Amino acid sequence: MEEIRLIEVKEEILADNDAAARRTREKLKRDKTFLLNLMSSPGAGKTSLITQAIKELRNEFRIGVIEADIESMVDSRKVASLGIRAVQIKTGGFCHVDASMVQKGLDALECATLDLVILENVGNLVCPAEFDTGAIRNAMILSVPEGDDKPLKYPLMFSVCHLVVVNKIDFLEVSDFDRKAFGDRVLSLNSGVKMLDVSCKTGEGIPAWANWLRQEIRQFTAG
Amino acid sequence: MHELQVTQLMLNVVLEHARKHEVHKILAVHLEIGKLKDFDQDWIQQYFDYLSKGTPAEGAKLKIEWIPVILQCAGCSHSFEVDIKRLAEIHCPECAGTECSMISGRDYRVKQIEVV
Fold first, then answer.
1. At what angle do helices A15-31 and A99-109 cross, to 10 degrees?
2. How does DSSP classify residue B72?
3. How far apart are CA B22 and CA A11, in angstroms?
4. Strands B26-34 and A116-120
5. Class assignment of domain B2-115?
6. Under an 8 A CB cutoff, do B101 and A192 touch?
7. pLDDT value at position B87?
8. DSSP reduced 3-state for A98
9. Rounded CA gap, A3 and B116, in Å?
10. If interface means Cβ-Cβ distance under 8 Å, which residues of chain B face chain A?
11. How many domains are contained in chain A?
12. Would you state the pLDDT for residue A69?
C-alpha cells in the first residue's frame, strides 16, 4: 500500500492574474498611461461619471474607455458618441474582468497614445473586487439609493478602493441614507481611502471628481 | 460566477505541483482562504469535482483553513481580529480608534496537497 504524503504548495490561487496585472502596470508606466478601474452596482452611475470626466478633461488629456459590459454595446456607443476612443471587451458571461482581458482592451485602444484610460468594470460589488485588473487606481461608486449599509455587506470591495464616489447625493434629502455612518464604515475598513460626494444629475461635486483624476494622472506621469 | 474561474485556477496550481512531484493521485487539497472572501465550500467542491474529472485530482476533498480578518488601527498601529458579522462595531481595542486598514482576510492560497 502506498503511503500518504503531504506536499507543501504555498501558492496564491490568483498568482497568474496577479503577475499579468503587474506586467500591465509596468507597461502603463512606460507608456505614461493612467488606468482607472471603475466599479459599482448596476445603475449606480458608472457611465454617467465617465461621461462627466470626459467633458471636464478632454481638452487636457487624451482619453480612452474600456467597457466591460456582459452583453450589450449600449455603454460603448454612448461613450463613442462623444468622440472618445472606446472598446468593448466581451466577458462571455463572466461577472468580472481579469488582467489579461484588460490588457487586450488596452492593446485594442493603442493605449500608448493615451493619457487616461477608464475601465468600466462589470456592474456588481462582489466579483470585480477579486481580480487585480492591472489598474493604477481602483475607484467605486456607491449611489445613495443603494443604502449606507453596503460596506457591511461588501467589505472586500470597499477595502480594495483608493476612491469611493457617493453618487446621486441629490437624493440625500428624501432618503434615510446616513452619510456620516457610511463614511465611518468605509474608513473602518480602509483608512487611506478618499471619498467624494457627487450628483451626475445636478453637476454637484463633478469638478472635484475631475480634479481627483487630474491630480492622480499628473502625479503618475511625473513619477 | 467568479467561483468557477477561481476553482479552475486553483486546480491548475494543484495539478502543476502534482506533475512536478510525479504524483498520480491527489486525495485532498488544503486551502487557506480569508474570511472576507465570498467562498462557499460546498459550491467550490462541486465546481472542483466537475473540473477535475479525468485528472489526478479527481475525487480529492477540499479542506479549508479560514484566515481571520485582521485590521490595523491607523491611529496607534495596533492589529486586531474582527468578526465579519460585526463590521458595524469596529473600533481599536487599544485606543478606540475607528479608522483602520486591512492586513489579512483576503487570502486565497493552496497550502498543501495530500497525495499517494
1. 30
2. E
3. 18
4. unpaired
5. alpha beta
6. yes
7. 87
8. coil
9. 6
10. 1-2, 5-6, 9-10, 12-14, 17-18, 21, 23, 27, 31, 36-38, 69, 71, 74, 84, 87-88, 90-91, 98-102, 106, 108-116
11. 1
12. 66
ipTM of this predicted structure: 0.88
- A176 occurs within a structural domain: yes
The answer to whether the predicted template modeling score (pTM) of the entire model surpasses 0.90 is yes
Within-domain flag for A8: no
Residue A203 φ/ψ, nearest 5 degrees: 90, -5
- Would you call B9 and A127 a contact, using CB atoms and an 8 Å cutoff? no
CB contact under 8 A, A5 and B114: yes
CA end-to-end distance (rounded Å), chain B: 32
All structural domains of chain B with their residue ranges:
2-115
**What is the total residue count of chain B?**
116
Asked, for residue A7, whether it belongs to a domain, the answer is no
Record: contact B108-A10, CB cut-off 8 A = no
Copy the grid coordinates of residue B84: 465579519
Q: Is there a domain that residue A1 lies in?
A: no
Q: Which domain holds residue A35?
A: 15-222
